[in-house]
Specification:
- By secondary structure, the protein is an alpha/beta fold.
- About 30% of the residues lie in helices and about 15% in strands.
- The chain has a 6-stranded mixed β-sheet with strand order 3-2-1-9-10-11.
- It is globular and about 50 Å long.
- The protein starts with a strand and ends with a strand.
Length: about 240
């Protein structure tokens, strides 16, 4: 069965509309779409991205949305404005520029002007981010499986059975997952580690083409283990 996949969006609502248009123009339009997480941060309108995905699911579209590390970070920030995720390579608050959380809050109308008190920003965020958005993020699955694919935001830890994978790895792992060349039994489809464009390897497909850094958001099409990327010229086989 054909299945589409969209990698890390990072608040890029215009690029998300563009990606969905590429899918709508494909011969398999209407097939399920798996979104690989990281809907928020860095881009201009994280709120609009979440609202579009929530609306699509509410309308009955066959959309599966996974949780990414940035999505989880938003929830943990709302619980504690000084939360620092130990998986980040250096101590950073979610609102620090490298992570891009301030841009997410701005999309909800929160004043994130430099010099504002951290606790004032947090208080405004608690009022601005709808409970429905928080609940939607909290209930996102961490994995999605088909007979031929395992969809996950970041990757899997080699040597650990699927049922025993830890959430921190599912949303954060890079090495040793990226370095492992063994067969997972199915194609692992993931995002999280930004490239210049989606890339297919022998045992995995990385769909993070760097939209969070200003690069295009190109959806993929999977026909078994065959993978294609969609763009203005149609399909290109990977």
């Amino acid at each position: 069965m054909p299945i589409f996949v969209i990698g890390d969006i990072h608040g890029q609502i215009d690029r998300l509309h563009e990606a969905l248009e590429y899918i709508a123009n494909d011969a398999h339009a209407g097939a399920p779409i798996v979104f690989l997480g990281d809907y928020v941060d860095r881009g201009p309108d994280s709120r609009a991205v979440i609202e579009l995905l929530m609306q699509g699911q509410a309308e009955g579209r066959p959309w599966t949305c996974l949780m990414g590390n940035h999505d989880r970070f938003l929830l943990r920030y709302l619980g504690n404005p000084r939360y620092m995720d130990p998986n980040v390579s250096r101590p950073l608050l979610w609102t620090d520029p490298p992570l891009g959380g301030a841009r997410t809050l701005a999309s909800y109308g929160v004043d994130v002007s430099e010099g504002r008190d951290l606790h004032d920003i947090h208080a405004d965020a608690l009022e601005a981010v709808p409970q429905a958005h928080r609940d939607w993020i909290a209930n996102l699955p961490r994995l999605h499986e088909t007979e031929e694919h395992i969809f996950v935001h970041a990757g899997l830890r080699p040597g650990v059975l699927l049922n025993y994978q830890k959430e921190d790895d599912l949303v954060w792992i890079r090495a040793p997952f990226l370095d492992w060349q063994g067969d997972w039994g199915r194609l692992v489809v993931h995002g999280h580690t930004a490239l210049d464009a989606p890339q297919l390897y022998s045992n995995r497909l990385n769909m993070d083409g760097g939209a969070g850094y200003g690069r295009p958001l190109r959806p993929g099409l999977l026909l078994g283990r065959e993978a294609f990327v969609l763009g203005p010229g149609g399909r290109v086989r990977l």
